Structure formats: C-alpha cells, structure tokens
Amino acid sequence: MSARRVVVTGMGAVTPLGPDVPTLWSALTAGRSGIRKIKSFDTTSFDTKIAGEVQDFDATRYFDRKDARRADRFAQLAVAAATEAVAEAKLDQGVDRDRVGVSIATAGGGLQSVVETANQLQERGPSRVSPFFVTMYIANAASGLVSLRWGFRGPSLTHVSACASSSHSVGEAAEAIKRGQVDVMVAGGAEAVIVPIAIAAFGNMRALSRRNERFDGAQLPEKLQLTLRNSFEKARANNGA
Q1: Who is most buried in 63, 81, 176, 178, counting CB within 10 A?
Q2: Which CATH number covers residue 185?
Q3: What is the tally of structural domains in the chain?
C-alpha cells in the first residue's frame, strides 16, 4: 500500500525579510539580505552588532494586550505566522479539529522571558515573579498557543534539536500524515534569541560575524535566485494540481 501523499496547502512567515510570505519571497528572489543593525538592545559594547532580527513586530495585531504580555516573543511570532498559514489553508472552517495537529519547533524557547524574569527575581524578589513565567519559557508554548487559538485537538508536538529543530518538525509532521495519525499538521519553527546574553555567548564562540559595516552587501547569486523562483513556481503548480 502506497503512503498517503502529503502536500503544503498554506504557508505563513514572519521574518527579517518581511511579515508575510509574499514579502519574504519577493525579498528572497531579489537577493536581498535580512541582516541589519540590531535594534532591540544597545550593542555598543558588543563585537557583533548585526543580526537577522524581526523588527517593528506588533504582537497586538494577534493578541489582546493582556495575552501579549503573557506570551514570549518566540510564541508570538509563531502565532503570527500560523495565522497566515491557517487562513491560506482554510483550516479555520470546515475541518475535523480532532484530525488537525500542531508541530512547532524551537531551539531557544522563551529565552527572552528567562532573562527578564531572572533579572526581576534578583532585583525585586520571588514575590514579583509572574505565575505565567512557566507557560512563557517552556519550549512547547508556541505549539500550545496555536492549538488553543484554533481548537486543534490532534497531537501538539515540539522538536528541540538545535539548528535542525524546524526541519525535524516539518519532517515528523509529514510522517504523522503519511501514517494516518492526522489529516493536517500546522508545522514549522519559531525563535527569538536576539537578546544580549545569546549574542554575547555566540560571539565569544566566534560563531558570529564581526563585519558590522558590510552586513547589507550580502546578495544571492543570480543563478541561485533563478533556482529559487523555479522551485517555488513548481511547488505551487504541484500543489494546485
């Protein structure tokens, strides 16, 4: 018996190159770089002052203000990207929610919340630590919030495997569909690790570029741009078949 065919029916993205898939793809195929000067904190004392940072993101487009304060940035980004994907795939209507699962990976999880809460504990004492901190820093916060947002009651998974996390997430989601466990998986990954402690640590590992004045010179070769366009158009055509 042949395996079930797995296709992509909707996509969503919030990236340094744009807040949605069309903007991201336009930038990619034009060969633009998403690396810019870091805006979220003062980099004066840092050797590396650049990163692929999602800038000007407004979480209140996807959460009310109270709920936004109770979600780490990585989970906010995941919900924002999932909103676009769910809408394109039309999963917000006419689906069996018991047969829809979520698999959103992360390597760093709620790192920003960990740092901020640790500082708050040290400065103001244990009574000032939010009870929501636990649900903000845990790695499966993104998958959980997406599942809750749309009432998806299939498996809620989180893969944590460093730089391969999102690849594992998408691969395992496809396998869940192939084996008939679910009909649909909302799969991907989210990170929000551009915080001082992470930039300092990776910088001291010599894992980050220090060419801070040449960050906008990175361009995709014309041949690679053409390959990307052809691959995207072929994938779109296959999914529409």
Answers
A1: 81
A2: 3.40.47.10
A3: 1
Is residue 32 included in any domain, yes or no? yes
Residue 226 in domain: no
Please write down the HEC assignment for all residues of the chain.
CCCCCCCCCCCCCCECCECCHHHHHHHHHCCCCCCEECCCCCCCCCCCCEECCCCCCCHHHCCCHHHHHCCCHHHHHHHHHHHHHHHHHCCCCCCCHHHEEEEEECCCCCHHHHHHHHHHHHHHCHHHCCCCHHHHHCCCHHHHHHHHHHCCCCCEECCCCHHHHHHHHHHHHHHHHHCCCCCEEEEEECCCCCCHHHHHHHHHCCCCCCCCCCHHHCCCCHHHHHHHHHHHHHHHHHHHC
Provide the residue range defining the domain that includes 106: 21-37+54-193
> With a threshold of 0.85, does the pTM exceed it?
yes
Tens digits of per-residue pLDDT, 58-102? Answer: 999 999 999 999 999 999 999 999 999 999 999 988 899 999 999
